[in-house]
Amino acid sequence: MAKAKTGNKPAAPLASGYVPRLKKHYLEVVRKQLQEQYKYTSSMQIPRLEKIVINVGVGKDTVQDKGAIDPVVDEITLIAGQKAVKTYARVSISNFHLREGMPIGVKVTLRGARMYDFLDKLVTIALPRVRDFKGVSTSSFDGRGNYTIGLREQLVFPEIDYDKIKKIRGMDITFVTTAKTDDEAYQLLSLMGMPFKEK
Asked: How many angstroms from the chain centroid is the CA of residue 95?
């Protein structure tokens, strides 16, 4: 388990009045379709995307080189459009030469406009660049309306320059929703453009 370092630098402010394309799509199209399908008795019951968490593990790299994690922070910051933070080991594990407090990963949590912008970029640019892409799995929901996908490399994002990276790294991306069931979360994400494989 890991804990994130606190005291992040605040992200640069977005333009005043800016409304992301997918947020507008959610408000004008997705909400209505979900309401029609599930017959909610209150508008507050309509599921929404709450946050997106991007997480990268660096494994044993920091044991051999403490500076190995810094380029990963920079890469995830570029990809997310928001300052990423290091995560640290909570316990020591001698077999892995891991000590408590050692940096073991990088994460960033996106909300609001940056969340919608990242999702837009993911579904329209990054996922189509995945080799032999045939859609994302429908079996990666957690039973509570949240969904996680894994990417094998950061190169699918347009901000990453192949010639400047030190190592190809994968990442986990978790979509936290207010949906009560996986089916509702599936419909929400599907309507937002998530390219699921056919069930």
From this structure: 30
Q: How many CA atoms lie within 13 A of 122 on its CB side?
A: 28
51-88 burial string, b = 16+ CB within 10 Å, else e? ebbbbbbbeebbeeeeebbebbbebbbbbbbbebbbbb
Over the stretch 52-110, which tens digit does the pLDDT of each residue have?
A: 999 998 876 655 666 778 889 999 999 999 999 998 777 666 655 656 667 788 999 99
Q: H or E segment at 188? A: helix 182-191
C-beta neighbour count of 156 within 10 angstroms: 18
Task: Evaluate whether 109 touches 51 at the Cβ level (below 8 Å).
Answer: yes
Instruction: Collect all residues with Cβ–Cβ distance below 8 Å to 66 and sequence separation of at least 6.
Output: 103
The structure tokens listed for 57 are: 């593990």
CA distances from 67 to 82, 86, 151, 164 (A): 21, 12, 23, 16
Confidence of residue 11 (pLDDT cuts 50, 70, 90): low
Looking at residue 62, what is its pLDDT? Answer: 58
Whole-structure pTM value: 0.86
Rounded distance, CA 65 to CA 19, Å?
Answer: 42
CB-count burial class (<10 Å; 0-12, 13-18, 19+) for 140: middle
Question: In the numeric block, which tokens belong to residue 3?
Answer: 């804990």
- The average pLDDT across 157-179 equals 90
